[in-house]
């Protein structure tokens, strides 16, 4: 579905390693010593029934919540306890479950927001319209165009992002995260609320992000069909604990997973 793929990130992208992460909220253990590894260039789904701890896990990875104990590392770089912007700057980008696009900004401007941390020219150089700043701006716009093409929205660059159908707005969000040139992309229910067509299109883009760009993806998703089709590995949570992990086929047949989903007695 894509024509021009943006240049791939370093194919030796590091693994994202979650080790014994525990998160406690007053009296409640939302995550209990959870460990898993997101292999470079893979789609790793985190699933589980309602209240299992998926969002909490996502929020720890993106730095919104601080783990009570345990570590998160990208390669050898410690991410534990860093602020969200610092984690993003180290190459872990996220999308949001609810749309977080400025309502009147064009698609191009929305994508450019993702380039912000990569912008070198200072305020003064840009303000004075120095040639170096102009060159840099051209480079960013070129990249924005490539990424718009990658997500299939090159024809919509000058349209207000808020005027697009919901599924396309979600793709703009994904594109904005890609504009950060991440090593790992955290996707929080990327297809929730979409039509069947939008779901198919988004799933294809997500697969393409892995296959063409080599970016690792952590996918928190309720739609089992999509998880089973897209994921290379699955971590299953229930009541804050990791109850199973493996390939989609392995976890699907795991009695603990079946019990957790069906609520059958032990
Ligand atoms: N900020 C918070 N303060 C207190 N408790 C929280 C907070 N966030 C989550 N929890 C609790 O932690 C547990 C895990 O919630 P979490 O939202 O991570 O689960 P989930 O698997 O994402 O659920 P769902 O599928 O319903 O979104 C729940 O019991 C929830 O009520």
Automatic annotation (TrEMBL):
InterPro entries: AAA+_ATPase, ABC_AA/LPS_Transport, ABC_transporter-like_ATP-bd, BCA_ABC_TP_C, P-loop_NTPase. Keywords: ATP-binding, Nucleotide-binding, Transport. CDD domains: ABC_Mj1267_LivG_branched. Residues 16-264 form the ABC transporter domain. Gene3D superfamilies: P-loop containing nucleotide triphosphate hydrolases (3.40.50.300). GO terms for molecular function: ATP binding. It holds the Pfam family ABC_tran. PANTHER family: ABC TRANSPORTER ATP-BINDING PROTEIN, CONSERVED COMPONENT OF ABC TRANSPORTER FOR NATURAL AMINO ACIDS-RELATED. This is ABC transporter ATP-binding protein.
């Amino acid at each position: 579905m894509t024509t021009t793929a943006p240049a791939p990130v370093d194919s030796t992208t590091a693994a994202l390693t979650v080790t014994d992460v525990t998160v406690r909220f007053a009296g409640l253990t939302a995550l209990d010593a959870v460990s898993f590894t997101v292999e470079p260039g893979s789609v790793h789904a985190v699933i589980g029934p309602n209240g299992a701890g998926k969002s909490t896990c996502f929020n720890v990875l993106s730095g919104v919540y601080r783990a009570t104990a345990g570590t998160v590392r990208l390669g050898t770089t410690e991410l534990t306890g860093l602020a969200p912007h610092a984690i993003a700057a180290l190459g872990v980008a996220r999308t949001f479950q609810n749309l977080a696009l400025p309502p009147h900004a064009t698609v191009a401007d929305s994508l450019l927001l993702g380039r912000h941390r990569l912008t070198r020219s200072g305020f003064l150089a840009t303000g004075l319209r120095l040639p170096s700043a102009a060159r840099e701006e051209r480079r960013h716009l070129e990249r924005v165009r490539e990424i718009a093409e990658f997500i299939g929205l090159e024809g919509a660059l000058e349209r207000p992002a808020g005027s697009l159908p919901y599924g396309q707005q979600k793709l703009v969000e994904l594109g904005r995260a890609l504009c950060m040139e991440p090593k790992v992309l955290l996707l929080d229910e990327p297809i929730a609320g979409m039509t069947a067509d939008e779901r198919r299109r988004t799933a294809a883009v997500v697969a393409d992000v892995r296959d063409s760009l080599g970016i690792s993806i952590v996918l928190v998703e309720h739609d089992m069909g999509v998880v089973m089709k897209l994921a290379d590995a699955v971590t299953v949570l229930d009541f804050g604990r990791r109850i199973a992990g493996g390939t989609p086929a392995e976890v699907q047949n795991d009695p603990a997973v079946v019990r957790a989903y069906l609520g059958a007695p032990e």
